[in-house]
Design a protein that fits this description.
about 475 residues, mainly beta, Immunoglobulin-like, binds copper (II) ion
Length: about 475
């Protein structure tokens, strides 16, 4: 159920942004049984166009246990949920009312990395605005994507402070009959600082807050029909926290990773979601009904303790409740789909590159996070590739912390982890590389030439240097 208090607080915050033209879309009526307050601010494209002002601004929020202010888009945490169809034209006007420079990244979208599309090199200074405009390709896959700031040096503060939102592309996956029959819920997962928590667990490991929020609510209740099919679309919008999710008494059936459907559902007892990562799961709700906790299980991001790193205060020791699924009414038990969509096998890499992730001391800079021994520099091109070519990248983590590796513009497939072949083919744009692990991924640089980036998706690590520039040359 929507928490009335946080809804009103957010609405009040949003009213200040009304002049930016967003609220005429907001708060459209949806059944109250939905937990998704972001659904009350869904902005859908109409007749091939999605046009929206996004105002980045610190605003009062009312989420129990948290401090009273957060960074918001249009007064909302998370920001409005954007919904697109392939071929749509997107026109966003970003207004920076923050104290620091910002910009926008369209995480996972296959669009140009330059101009006013997915250009993370744009810099929008406080008080300024920036137009973003791009057309989603006609053949763009359906999926759950993620918009958030990506201005190097201020990303972690801004995402940890609250900025980010879900972006859905509708398409083929949504039209599979069993998937279409499911009750769909988008869950934006974000940890927030408690009111008395100071600045969190520290930038070295990556800051976490102890309050777990789902669509800006703490332990919301999600009502579903017993026997029905529930489609949870999960987005980890945290700065650094890994979410390790399990739903009491239920198996989750993974149908899509990041922005891509699988060939068939994969049953999971638990689901690990690293920052920036998305998962689409189907759950056959128990026919006998009941109340079931969606739990967040402990996860240690520090691989080998005792190597000089102190354990962080927010290391997770016990399960925390994320949300509660409770049944209301019943339907005839619904089947799972047998087949989903074909996942192309990309083959024949023309070369293999190696990316070694670690942290270390850099003269005159102190501690930095590094890829191949280098701290990020705007001016340097780290990797030059050819448009249309396929490459294998060996991602090697020689450090003590886990690092989720993210590549912009083109999705990847995991080939192997520590030499073990990946059990099923899947498209990913964030790949976890655990401490001590080597992960081989494959990608093809399709359609768009230009300069872009790859980086650790723990934003504190990215801001501290764990990023590289890639130039895709035609
Ligand atoms: Cu990292």
């Amino acid at each position: 159920m929507i928490s009335r208090r946080s809804f009103l607080a957010l609405a009040a915050g949003g009213a200040a942004a009304a002049s930016a033209g967003e609220l005429r879309h907001a708060w459209s009526a949806r059944p109250q049984r939905r937990i998704n307050p972001a659904a009350t601010s869904v902005v859908r494209s109409k007749a091939g166009l999605l046009k929206l002002d996004l105002v980045a601004q610190e605003m009062p929020i009312s989420i129990p246990g948290t401090s009273r202010r957060a960074l918001t888009y249009n007064g909302l945490l998370p920001g409005p949920q954007l919904e697109l169809e392939p071929g749509d034209l997107v026109q966003l006007e970003l207004h920076n009312r923050l104290k620091n420079p910002t910009n926008l990244h369209f995480h996972g979208l296959h669009i140009p990395p330059n101009g006013t599309a997915d250009n993370v090199f744009l810099r929008v200074t406080p008080g300024q605005k920036q137009s973003y405009s791009f057309t989603l390709p006609d053949n763009h896959p359906a999926g759950l994507f993620y918009y958030h700031p990506h201005h190097h040096g201020t990303v972690a503060d801004q995402v940890f402070g609250g900025l980010g939102g879900a972006l859905l592309v509708r398409g083929e996956l949504d039209r599979i009959p069993e998937v279409q029959a499911a009750q769909e819920e988008v869950l934006v997962l974000k940890d927030l600082l408690a009111a008395n928590e100071g600045s969190g667990s520290g930038v070295m490991l990556g800051r976490e807050g102890s309050i777990l929020s789902v669509n800006g609510q703490v332990n919301p209740e999600l009502q579903v029909a017993a026997g029905g099919l529930l489609r949870l679309r999960l987005l980890n919008a945290s700065n650094a926290r890994f979410w390790r999710l399990a739903l009491e008494g239920h198996t989750m059936h993974l149908i899509a990773t990041d922005g891509g459907a699988l060939e068939q559902p994969v049953p999971l007892q638990e689901l690990l979601l690293v920052p920036g990562e998305r998962a689409d799961v189907l759950v056959q709700v128990a026919p006998e009904g009941g109340r079931f906790r969606l739990n967040n299980l402990p996860y240690k991001r520090l691989g080998r303790p005792g190597m000089g790193m102190r354990r962080p205060v927010t290391d997770q020791h016990q399960a925390d409740i994320v949300a509660t699924v409770s049944t209301n009414g019943a339907v005839t038990p619904q089947p799972l789909p047998q087949r989903l969509l074909r996942v192309e096998e990309i083959s024949s890499p023309v070369r293999t590159r190696r990316f070694v992730m670690n942290h270390g001391m850099v003269p005159s800079m102190g501690m930095a996070f590094l890829i191949n021994g280098e701290r990020y520099s705007h001016a340097r091109i780290d990797t030059r590739v050819r448009l249309g070519e396929t490459e294998d990248w060996e991602l090697v983590n020689t450090g003590v912390m886990d690092h989720p590796f993210h590549l912009h513009v083109n999705p990847m497939q995991v080939i192997s982890r520590n030499g073990r072949p990946e059990p099923y083919r899947a498209w990913r744009d964030v790949v976890l590389v655990r401490s001590g692990e080597t992960v081989r991924v494959r990608t093809r640089f399709n359609d768009f030439a230009g300069k872009s980036v790859y980086h650790c998706h723990i934003f504190d690590h990215e801001d501290l240097g764990m990023m590289g520039n890639i130039l895709i040359e035609a």
